[in-house]
């Protein structure tokens, strides 16, 4: 029926993208304990924090302490988001494995998020990528608002391709294309990906879907059919975009893993350990996580 891969790579972004939207400060010790639980679940990649100025994202002000306190699994890449050279320097001091740079495909969202135009952002990121590579670190790039912008609406595919090509030309190792506000639908993904593939090599592309309108898993399925085999996800569906009102809910790692395993696609992730890690963080947050798998777990306990 479908041409699907045998294996998929899932990159956990919960400790960064998931927690950054939480208004109540999550205690440092709980972040460390949660990441340690995630490390036991079989992930090949965990994005543990972001080295941004605390005034922008107070929740992640302890990035340095988290980086130096977690128990690192030698089979896992531990990555962090960096906005500029100052953030990169701090990340490098902690022995981060990989750094991520980020920008938007839409001008307005980029200005709201980074306080710079797209053209002004390029030289800043180019400097970061160059230094990270000199330090023998791998670099990941994020492009936001690929399928729609909260301020501009539809974003032209040509604009997405242009920004993506520019980041790849800087020497990044992988590019994650983000549906930042969760507006993408399967038909749109099916239309956009072939057009992007004309200009981008999909062996270096990942997808980052949000589940704001409940279509993330469907969008993953379409992406799989187009040859994408790497996806970002957040355990329990935690998180969203702090600069896009109402854009709550990342693609839930546990729902994604469950779907892929039922379809016979390997992820290397242990579902039972995912439940334990998900249960831990929802108790810390004193709230039920929105993923279907966590809702099932919570009902079974009643």
From TrEMBL:
One MF annotation (Gene Ontology) recorded for this entry: hydroxymethylglutaryl-CoA lyase activity
Any one GO BP annotation for this protein:
L-leucine catabolic process
Q: Which residues form the Pyruvate carboxyltransferase domain?
A: 8-275
Q: Which InterPro entries match?
A: Aldolase_TIM, HMGL, PYR_CT
Entry annotated with the keyword Transit peptide: no
* Regions crossing the membrane: none
Q: Which domain of life is it from?
A: Bacteria
Q: Name one Pfam family in it.
A: HMGL-like
Q: Which UniProt keywords apply?
A: Lyase, Metal-binding
SUPFAM superfamilies assigned to the protein according to its UniProt record, in alphabetical order? Aldolase (SSF51569)
Matching entries from NCBIfam families are given as: PRK05692.1
Q: Which family does it belong to?
A: Belongs to the HMG-CoA lyase family.
Q: What is this protein called?
A: Hydroxymethylglutaryl-CoA lyase
